[in-house]
Each structure stands twice: as structure tokens, then as C-alpha cells.
Amino acid sequence: MTEMSPAATVAVAGTTGFKAPGTTPEKTPRGYAPGLAAVNFGVYLALLTPVLVSMAFKIQHISATPEQATANLGLVSGVGALFALIANPLAGRLSDRTTSRFGMRRPWILGGALVGVGAFLLIGIAGSVWVVLLGWCLAQASLNAVLAAANATLPDQTPVASRGRVSGIVGITTPLAILAGSFLINFIGDDVLRFLVPALIALVLAVVFVALLKDRRLDQKPSQRLTVGQFFGSFVFNPVKHPDFGWTWLTKFMIMFGYAGIATFLPYFLTQKFDLDEQTAISTILIANIASTVGMVISSPLGGVLSDRFGKRRPFVALAGIIMVVGLVVLAFAPSVPVVILAQGIIGLGAGSFFSVDLALATQVLPNPDDTAKDLGVLNMANALPQSIAPAIAPLVIAIGAGTAIGGYSLWYLVGAAVALAGAILVYRIKGVK
């Protein structure tokens, strides 16, 4: 969300550190790339640690039964993901129009990080699911605002020729945050600290980034107001007019649906199927995340290089989806914890290749080269929506499966595998890309 309103009147502020929007920087400021990577790492550490581990156990501690805990976790995860979906583009657009004397992006980065700490503290001390839900919605909204504003500084601060390098540095922060969060929770037993410590780390890294950032400044508000209709209209496309883009969106949504339901319910899967205590389950999740990350690190560059070399995208996207399906099926029928870890490694192997090749495919089917940012925002919805829908329907599937020989969580992983397999097949409906 880095577009500037053409009607905006822009001037360079008296402070020499600020630059006018609309100018292309000649070189990336020293320290900018590691600073941007650090703030992304902090946000993902704060957000993904609850998703992977601590939220499940927090809700388990305040729920009366395991069945109630599953339903509550689905509610909190699903509604929170909706807030993330809305807050990220909204904050990005608003930061484009911010006229603070501190700059366009810095108020959102610092303010979002501060609100996030308060939200995670609220979750930690909460004694009811509704308070946890409120805190998680605030956390998702505030920290996604940080992400939107921080990542919008990339075109502000970096020339076009250097953006790939900076993006690559930022890209490794997600798996690093997953590993760091899983490792950190191994040494924290208190519910409050499990949420507060990652949030404080995110705040410190945000403060450092804000202190070093030579932010751009908009001295006069855009004359044209951003209406609700304009905002939501910027994320709409016509699948009949642009069928390849529509099939790409659906393929991404379906494969991400299978992927999105894994981490949320893995703690309950481990504790209920294998009778693991909480600490053992946390340690197992750490090992499983290491296996998944190793798989992603191997397959992500390999998939991209091979798809470039052969000039084909669809076979690699389909193969990546099928590998993820295999991992989900192995996970569903895992007879032991080591097989769960193996399944996570297989899923990571497929996911890494999918994420790299799918993005390359997507850039070849964008409807309008003048609306690249908008269209990529539409595709991002295919990433985000499954993270809301999958946890919301999972409790029903798990409840149905609990009365069968398969088991509730096993049935859920099989449903995810079936949806992801359909997505892998549908990629061949895309005709404009090989």
C-alpha cells in the first residue's frame, strides 16, 4: 500500500532526515535493511508464537473441557485473522496519507507496537475466552499496522535495483521468528510472560527501527478523501474478465487452506493423541518447526531456480501442493511423535517450493501492470482468508471425527489434504502460464 495520492501537495520538511514522497532514493540508507528485517522479525515473533504454541495452551487453561478448548481456539483464531486481513491494507493506506511531523510511517510503527504490548498483556492476564478474543483482535490489528507501515518504507528508502536484495533479507525473518518463538516458550511457563516477552522484544526492535529511520513526511493532507467504497473497491477484481488471475487466487486459497489449519491445532493433537504433557508438547513443536524450516530452506530456492530454468510454473506449483498433501496425510495417520516430525518436514518441503513458485506465477497473470500493488493485495487475501476460515470450521470437523475410528484431528488434517489437492489440480486451469 505505497501509492501516493496525486493530489497531495508535498514538501521536504525542515528536518534534513525527511524526504519528500514521490522521489526515488539513490541508495539504501546504511542500516535500513537490517532494521526493516529486525522489525519484521519482532512482529512475527509476537504474532506467530501464540499461533504456534502459547494461544492453544492459554485457552486450554481457561476452558472447562478439551472440546470447549478446541471450539474456543477456533473462534479466537478465526476472528483474529479477520482483523489482520482488514488492518494491514487499511493501515497501509492511512500511513500513505499521514501528515505527522514525525513522518508518514513512524507513528504507525511505534503506535502499533505499543498497543500490541498492551493487547498481549491483556491476553496473558485474561480469565475468560472473550477477553482473550478482544486482546487477540487488538494484537492482530495493531501489529499488522506495524507490518504495513514498516514494509511501506521499502520503496521510500530503497532504489528499485536494490529492493530484491532487501526483500530477500526480510523474507528469512518468518522462519527465524517461528524457531525463536518455539525455542523461547520452552523456557517460559507463565501465561502472562509467554505473551508479554515476545511483544516486548517486538516493541524494542520497533523503537530501534523508528529511531534510525529517516522517514518521509507529507506536509499537507491529500485533497481527495479516502472513502470506504474506494478502499474496499481497490481489492475487487473480475474473475470473468481475468480468468487466469481468478484461478490463481483460488489455487492459492485452497492450498493455503490445507496449510493454515496445521499449526493452530497441533498442540491439542499432540497432547490428546499421544498423551504428551504441556512441556513435552512444546518441545516437540520446536523440533517439528525445525524440521519444517529445514524443508522450506531446501525447497524454496530450489523450486524457484528449477521453474526459471524449465520456463514452467504450473507443474512446480502442482507438485509442491501434492507434497504438502502427502505431509498432511502422513500427519493425519502418524502413529508416533517422530512420524509427526517427519510429516512437518514433508509439509515444509512442499510449502517452501509453493511459496516461491506461486509468487512467480502470480506476477505473470496480474490483470493490470499499473495496479500491481492492488492486485498483489487481492492475492494476499487468498493467503489471509484461510487463516480465518480454517480455524472457524475446524471445531465442527473435529467434533464429527471424534465419533469415528479416524479421530477428530486426523479427520481435520485429511479435509485439509483434500482441499489442498483440489488446489494443486486447479492450477492447470490457468492457461496463460506454462
TrEMBL record:
Location relative to the cell: Cell membrane
Domain Major facilitator superfamily (MFS) profile, chain residue ranges per copy: 35-434
Keyword Membrane: yes
Membrane topology of the entry: Multi-pass membrane protein
Keywords, in A-Z order: Membrane, Transmembrane, Transmembrane helix
Transmembrane domains' residue ranges: 36-57, 69-87, 108-127, 166-189, 195-213, 249-270, 282-304, 316-334, 340-363, 384-405, 411-430
Main location, first listed in the record: membrane
Keyword Cell inner membrane applies: no
Name of the protein in its database record: MFS transporter
